[in-house]
Amino acid sequence: MCLYAATGLLLVGCSSGNGGSATAPPAPAKSIFGDCGSGAEIELPCGFPAPKPQDNNPVTMAKVTLGRFLFYDRNLSFNQTQSCADCHQQDKAFTDGLPVSVGSAGGLHPRNAMSMTNVVYNSTMNWANNQIVNLEQQALAVLLNEAPVELGWSGHELVMLDRLKSPSAADYAGTALAAAPPDYPAMFAVVFPDEADPITLMTVTKALAAFGSTMISGDSEFDKEQRGEPNAMSDAAKRGRELFFGERLECFHCHGGFNFSDSVNHAGLKFTQQSFHNNALYNLDGAGLYPPDNHGLREFTLQAEDEGKFRAPTLRNIELTAPYMHDGSIATLDEVIDHYARGGRLITTGPYAGDGALNPNRSSLINGFVITANERLDLIAFLKSLTDWKFVCRDDLSDPFGNIPKNVMCP
Ligand code: HEC
Ligand code: HEC
Q1: What separation in Å is there between the alpha carbon of 349 and the centre of ligand 2?
Q2: Percent of the chain that is helix, strand, coil (3-state, to 5)
Q3: Domains and CATH numbers, the chain
Q4: What is the Cβ-side half-sphere exposure of residue 314, based on CA atoms within 13 angstroms?
Q5: Which of the chain's ends, N or C, has fewer CB atoms near its CB within 10 Å?
Q6: If you take atom 27 of ligand 2, which residue's CA is the nearest one?
Q7: Rounded to whole angstroms, what are the CA distances from 19 to 24, 88, 163, 168?
Q8: Measured on CA atoms in the order 402, 405, 406, 411, is the torsion positive or negative?
Q9: Nearest bound ligand to CA 364?
Q10: Which percentage of the chain shows pLDDT scores above 70?
Q11: What is the spatial distance between Cα 189 and Cα 57, in angstroms, rounded to a whole number?
Q12: What value, to the nearest 5°, has the Cα angle with vertex 406 and ends 401 and 407?
């Protein structure tokens, strides 16, 4: 017999070899992610692998919806001024447009806000942190971070949870939901029915992670062309694609694969690919030193050869995520090309002076190249063909409180 059939939820496994005996372990919840055309609640772009199942935090649509409210709710910061979305704004492909981010208490973050494009596929989170490997850990780190204070929960956890347990109308004044603030107690109870106390630091991070995992982008002009729409990309972008994937420029070695990054994780992978490279931005002392607070992977491994090594981030939606690099020190895509063409950045004056091209940790793939003015335009056209407007405009990823405007290109 099949205990679950009546609920219509878990038909798979009912007719398994053990006859569906009452001792059989419950089948895992059906994933909301499915291939393109599968009719799944979240259809993956065609050709994308399935995300790794999060056994400790199965993603349900109710959890995703709850996570969306939390992600956009400024009451999630202690001083009620900042939400995740203030640093990860949808109109900028979930970045903030600043060289480095500013926390809710006004402190400068040493690094540039990363795009949340396809974060569910990251094998490590952040620019160069090999310790934070999933979205739950990342959300927890942001809530508790004290250097700098991001959302400022540390030392105030009970206050923050009480705020969610009894949302007050005053806290939502001036937002689009002033008349009907989110009913968190009811939402958490539905999403976490097995928890005696459903509103905890852990359930908050789980819901945030579930929402983040739906930020999947794979519908750019480049993708459409890949799927057989011959005119989706301009001729310039197609020429730029040849350059990008060619051996003169070498970009694809580090920014290759479906997510334009060599550091990805997904279902079916035997080994997680964690990669970090030194792309020769700095060389303060001639021995490869990077500026204070930004030593890259070395901060975690304490190995000298990891000085200045960072993850090659996805280049999807790169048109919208300026300024660039871990510290926002490159303003435009044109200057990014200058950097790679020279084979490292030369800084002639100031405290960070040095020649990145002579950095001993520089990746052997960063060698410099000659590029003509037209080829440069083609490469930029290609990088812009990775913008996914559907993603940037998706309603289910947008701000229910109405604080973060939509991109002017959105319908
Ligand atoms: C003060 C601005 C700020 C706030 C608020 C903020 N972030 Fe971030 N976020 C950043 C910065 C900066 C980084 C890169 C950090 C680093 O490399 O050390 C980042 C990185 C990330 C990443 C990793 C992306 C990747 O590709 O590795 C995720 C995921 C993320 N944030 C999610 C969140 C969530 C969820 C929240 C709310 C709980 C949040 N962020 C709040 C600034 C912010
Ligand atoms: C050796 C590996 C490697 C190669 C080759 C490489 N990159 Fe990168 N790329 C990186 C790393 C690592 C970063 C982040 C570095 C940092 O912030 O310190 C990066 C950052 C970038 C960024 C900024 C991303 C952001 O979100 O700010 C762009 C744009 C970029 N690369 C484009 C290119 C292009 C175009 C090429 C080819 C000309 C190229 N890369 C070649 C490793 C590489």
Answers
A1: 24
A2: 35, 5, 60
A3: 61-216+392-397 (1.10.760.10), 221-389 (1.10.760.10)
A4: 30
A5: C
A6: 324
A7: 9, 49, 48, 52
A8: positive
A9: 2
A10: 93
A11: 15
A12: 160
Q: Which ligand is nearest to the CA of 308?
A: 2
Question: What is the rounded CA–CA span in Å between residue 215 and residue 93?
Answer: 10
Interval between CA 142 and ligand 1 midpoint (Å): 7
Radius of gyration of the chain (CA): 23
Q: Is 144 in the pocket of ligand 2 (CB under 6 A)?
A: no
Nearest to 70 by CA among 58, 82, 79, 60: 82
Measuring from atom 41 of ligand 1, which residue has the nearest CA?
A: 84
Residue nearest to atom 11 of ligand 1 (CA): 113
> Is 255 close to ligand 2, i.e. is its CB under 6 Å away?
yes
Answer whether 84's CB lies under 8 Å from 142's CB: yes
Q: Are 262 and 382 in contact (CB under 8 A)?
A: no
C-beta 276 within 6 A of ligand 1 = no
How far away, in angstroms, is 406 Cα from ligand 2 center? 28
How many Å lie between the centroid of ligand 1 and the Cα of residue 205?
13
Q: Is 288 in the pocket of ligand 1 (CB under 6 A)?
A: no
CA of 101 to the centre of ligand 2 (A): 20
Q: pLDDT at position 150, please? A: 93
Give the mean pLDDT of the chain. Answer: 93
Q: Which of 198, 118, 132, 199 is nearest to 163 (CA)?
A: 199
Q: Which atom of ligand 1 is nearest to the CA of 205?
A: 38
pLDDT at position 7 over 60: no
Atom of ligand 1 nearest to the CA of 211: 35
Q: Could you report the per-residue pLDDT of 61-110, keeping only the tens digit for each? A: 999 999 999 999 999 999 999 999 999 999 999 999 999 999 999 999 99
pTM of the model: 0.93
Element (DSSP H or E) covering residue 66? helix 61-72
User: Is the CB of residue 354 below 6 angstroms from any atom belonging to ligand 1?
Assistant: no
290-322: pLDDT as tens digits: 999 999 999 999 999 999 999 999 999 999 999
Residue 217 has pLDDT above 80, yes or no: yes
pLDDT of residue 364: 97
